[in-house]
Amino acid sequence: MSPDELGKHVWELRGTLLRLACAIVRNPQDAEDAVSEAVVRAFESLAALRSDAAVRPWLTRITVRCCYDRVRRLRRETPCEDPEPLCAPVGPREAGTLVDLIALLPDGQREAITLYYYEGYSAQEVARALGVPRPAACMRLSRGRRRLRRLIEMEGEANHEA
């Protein structure tokens, strides 16, 4: 694949990569930085791409790795005394949208749900993108759906009481 062809794929997948990065790092500026870093890494390691058909999961996997690198860096930079969370979680009673509720899911479940439902990845593509076996990806999807269902029910109860 040529750098120009990779550039076209990056352009087509930019929204997908940014949404995935936001689901992991939970901060728009850090997500943009992680995606930028992923794009640079992709161009630097273009020779490692085995087939043109694999470009989507390949770019997604690079983005996931860059996001986790960024999260680790941010955690190291956070002072040890009384650390503040990177992003304050939204409690179920304050959540207003499905996106807010998805943000409450654990990392692996949140990523799998985002890729599967928002980006249209198959379970196999989710597994490849996250670097886990297909059964593990399916388990993350199943547990994520179950937890999301409970959060939606809690949200409904909270709205009903108000």
Describe the protein's architecture and organization:
With 162 residues, the chain is mostly helical. It folds into two domains: 1-88, Rna Polymerase Sigma Factor, Chain: A (Orthogonal Bundle); 89-162, Arc Repressor Mutant, subunit A (Orthogonal Bundle). It has seven helices and no strands. Helix 1 packs across helix 3 (55-77), helix 3 (55-77) packs across helix 6 (123-130) and helix 5 packs across helix 6. Mean pLDDT is 80; it is low at 80-95.
User: Which superfamily, in CATH terms, is the homologous superfamily of the largest domain?
Assistant: RNA polymerase sigma factor, region 2, helix turn helix motif
Span of the ends, CA to CA: 57 Å
CATH fold field value of the largest domain? Rna Polymerase Sigma Factor, Chain: A
Count the beta strands. 0
How many structurally independent domains?
2
So how many helices? 7
Briefly note the structural class of the backbone. Answer: mainly alpha
Helices and strands, with pairings:
Blueprint: H1 3-25, H2 28-44, H3 55-77, H4 98-102, H5 107-118, H6 123-130, H7 134-161
Helix pairs in contact: 1-2, 1-3, 1-5, 2-3, 3-6, 5-6, 5-7, 6-7
Short overview:
This protein has 162 residues and is an all-alpha fold. Helices cover 72% and strands 0% of the residues. Mean pLDDT is 80; it is low at 80-95.
Features:
7 helices, Arc Repressor Mutant, subunit A, 2 domains, globular, Rna Polymerase Sigma Factor, Chain: A, mainly alpha, 162 residues, 0% strand, 72% helix
